[in-house]
Amino acid sequence: MAAIVQETGEAMEFRSGAARVRVNAPLRAGLLAAVEARLARGEGFAIATLNLDHLVKLARDPAFAGAYRAQDFVTADGRPVVWLARLAGQRLELITGSDLIVPLLHVAAARQVRVGLLGATGATLAGAAERLREAIPGLDIAQQIAPPMGFDPDGDDARAALAAMQAAGVGLCLLALGAPKQERLAARGRELAPGIGFASIGAGLDFIAGSQRRAPAWVRAIALEWLWRMLSDPRRLLLRYLRAAMILPGQMRSALSQRRGTRP
């Protein structure tokens, strides 16, 4: 981890059950510089974006925790993570998977690195690819894979998808599978396709293609994107956000302990 932190800045540790996760990419500029350096050297990487839902899952899912240990860069995805860092006396910039897509692709285009899209549906991938090619000159999207229902990141379909990315000469692969599948596939990709950089981006391609609507900028600016999402899909998200809220007191105690230089 020490060498990774040198690329991006100081790390902050978050704890969830037995899992320990360090947000080691605190600033967007540092992360993009580190990614560009890796792409220039032909080296792979994996980027995960930590939020409260992930912290809930990490405590319950050993496979997810193992996948997080394989990530090279971890950012703060969610204002509660940013606020907890502030409580600990550290600065983390909000860096969501969705907001990383265009900056990462600009770096890839500038370096003439081929890009792969994996996840969502065929229609979403086609729509997102069309819009991204229009917006980013020189962007080379060389492979698009919409996985079948029940896609297993540890199964044969995942192995085949990674092999197809390699065969197409992909250097940067955006994973739009949702947690924990995308992080688990990125971890597997670090083993089977070590020359590819993987970025887990959640619903980012859906937003670009227009198959899902993201909260307006003014809603995000006042830190209410979570409420927008919950009201848009309460049956799926209400319980998720309740579980996330339940771990906040413990996370706050941990942050305060880090600020005092003690262990919770």
Q: Could you characterize what this model shows?
A:
55% of the residues lie in helices and 16% in strands. It has 264 residues and is of the alpha/beta class. The protein has one domain (2-218). The protein has a 6-stranded parallel beta sheet with strand order 4-3-8-7-5-6, sandwiched between helices. Strands 1-2 form a two-stranded antiparallel sheet.
**Major sheet: arrangement of strands:** 4-3-8-7-5-6
Number of domains: 1
Give the termini distance in whole angstroms: 22 Å
Helix content: 40-55%
Strand content: 15-25%
How big is the Rg?
18 Å
- Helices and strands: which structural class? alpha/beta
Coarse morphology: globular
Number of helices: 13
Spell out the helices and strands N to C.
Answer: HEEHEHHEHHEHEHEHEHHHH
User: How many DSSP-defined strands?
Assistant: 8
Task: Flag low-confidence runs.
Answer: none
Entry summary:
The chain is of the alpha/beta class.
Topology of helices and strands:
Elements: H1 2-8, E1 12-16, E2 19-23, H2 28-41, E3 45-50, H3 52-60, H4 62-69, E4 73-76, H5 79-87, H6 97-110, E5 114-119, H7 122-135, E6 141-145, H8 156-167, E7 170-176, H9 181-192, E8 197-200, H10 204-209, H11 217-221, H12 225-232, H13 234-260
Parallel strand pairs: 3-4, 3-8, 5-6, 5-7, 7-8
Antiparallel strand pairs: 1-2
Helix pairs in contact: 2-6, 3-4, 3-13, 4-9, 5-13, 12-13
